[in-house]
Amino acid sequence: MATMLDVSLRAGVSKATVSRVLNGTGQVKESTRQQVFKAMEELGYRPNFLARSLANQTSNSIGLVVSTFDGFYFGRLLQQASRQTESHGKQLIVTDGHDIPEHEERAVQMLDDRQCDAIVLYTRFMREKTIMALIESIKTPLVVINRDVSLARDRCVFFEQQDAAFQAVDYLITQGHRDIACITVPIHTPTGKARLEGYRRALEKHGIPWDQARVKYGNAEMSLGYELCQALLADNVRFSALFACNDDMALGASKALYQAGLRIPQDVSLFGFDDAPSARWLEPGLSSVYLPIDNMITTAIDQAIKLAGGQPIEAIPPFTGTLVLRDSVMPGPYFQSSSSDSSS
Amino acid sequence: MATMLDVSLRAGVSKATVSRVLNGTGQVKESTRQQVFKAMEELGYRPNFLARSLANQTSNSIGLVVSTFDGFYFGRLLQQASRQTESHGKQLIVTDGHDIPEHEERAVQMLDDRQCDAIVLYTRFMREKTIMALIESIKTPLVVINRDVSLARDRCVFFEQQDAAFQAVDYLITQGHRDIACITVPIHTPTGKARLEGYRRALEKHGIPWDQARVKYGNAEMSLGYELCQALLADNVRFSALFACNDDMALGASKALYQAGLRIPQDVSLFGFDDAPSARWLEPGLSSVYLPIDNMITTAIDQAIKLAGGQPIEAIPPFTGTLVLRDSVMPGPYFQSSSSDSSS
DNA sequence: CTGTTAGCGCCTTCAT
DNA sequence: ATGAAGGCGCTAACAG
User: Fold this and answer.
1) What is the pTM of this model?
2) Measured between CB atoms, does B83 come within 8 Å of chain A?
3) Same domain for B274 and B190
4) Strand C closer than 7 Å to the CB of A47?
5) Partner-chain contact A252 B281, CB within 8 Å
6) B197: which of A161, A231, B27, B100 lies 20 to 30 Å off by Cα?
7) Where residue A194 sits, what CATH number does that domain have?
8) A chain contacts of residue B69, beta-carbon cutoff 8 Å
9) Are residues B296 and B313 in the same domain?
10) pLDDT per residue over A134-144, tens digit each?
11) Which residues contact B109 (CB under 8 A, 6 or more apart)?
């Protein structure tokens, strides 16, 4: 591998000069400049990244650690993150935290060690305290995505999950459903809690009593959606609508419903969450809530880059979800064509 | 950030000694060893990764560039790659090639510059010639996944795509289907070509003439599966079975069939490819071909690590797909209960 | 066992 | 406009 010294010798100049033409810093006579370029060409010279980063104390890259690589959601996130980072002329380094806080923590540190200019962290289970400790223990600026850490509000980019869930269930209710079951995503995460809370608040708003039997605690996977829906059925709990806290589980649930001879939406209405790509192609099309994940990650990257550049930042307002209505919901038993809409 | 010098001063030893305890190399008296540890603790010392890599000429990490981050397929790939890499005590650095050969090429070079110990490349569109040139132009060993580059056979890890597709269509035929339509994935990729060729060969084996009207060229997306299936219907081509070259398009197609009032599998049988997680939860369950992607990437990483360690490697036999039969296929019009199976 | 010294490849004052 | 020299933080002989 040709080094800068090789180039300088070949071009008959000093390393300093080569460095100058390489970085476009300082003044270099056009003619010598050309010689240097020529020498670089001939030697197939490519600067050593590590050496450069070491000297500069920056690697011109931003790090991203996600809780997992799996699922359409993260695929989209990564893809957009990559684009956005590159549009800033930086490189994205991504790492899988395996959904384990300790692992995510190590991943962040490793990115810190690699001299990333900034780090973006997506975590589901890490505690706020740990996040704060992390922010303080590393030298690289950190922005947290999908979490609202109150002590570092301006480092956070997140969705209004609770409100989105609320909207979905509220919609179900205004469509005449009162017996609404719910299958949650992991309830030990802020996201899981928030979605369930949105469900609860919607019921509350309409004076529908909470029925513990109607909520089943899931983990986000299709298979669990299936099992929990079966459990609901086996328990004989009555519901005219089912709110699944993500589309994957909604799909699993739909299978259980089908096998029980229940039709969607005639017998039970189904509402998902995330608006997976498949939602619109299922039969019937799955109503779901869309989360502007692309916007969110783009914003997070921008924020990270500002931080990296030492620019002033301000808190990002939460992103909001929107309902995507398709065909998996039908007016329920309590539907009133022109309900006097008890708009609170 | 505390440096090694700080630690050495605090511990009253030299940098060399600190380096020794850090790497467990050479002999160090237990007592001084403890002092050094203590000093590191107190200073919250963390070795500078770049400096270390620069001195070592290795970053103890392996690079992976995928054609895109999107889709369940790559999610799974990345996840497994990450696990496997870490099980070898190395770090995985992944990069999105945006499905653009030039981009993928740059990504590989960038990983090369970063002193990765080895690089794994997943590309759909890059030409073999370019791949070969790349292998020769970089200093890091490269292993290619999902492609069979004959000039570098021992660097390749791939599936027997054609055979898998053949199996699927052959199965359809033995089930009594002769009018089988096909929706392809991008035909300019080896994968796309191979799957279509598998389809062709299966027809050929059974003496079914090729009918150009029955094959539609797709791009892998759900929406195109939908559109192409609609086109098939609009063109009035007759088919009792549809072979979609991936599950996403199969899903899109199923929507088109449904809207046309055609039932799966009663009116048309459907076969997918990839065995997406959703396949088994759809209604009816989608028959598909499973590709042992986890094994493949695991093997690729292992191969990469051997290469990195200068160990001898041998060519990896191609992986084979297996049919996963669910409920989307029914016996077709030519079905014979105990066909004299013209086993070739 | 431990310290000294010389790099790894590049950048950056400071002179000239 | 260019060169010399020192430094980024760590590793690796080579002496003691």
Assistant:
1) 0.92
2) yes
3) yes
4) yes
5) yes
6) B100
7) 3.40.50.2300
8) 74-76, 78-79, 82
9) yes
10) 999 999 999 99
11) A46, B137, B138
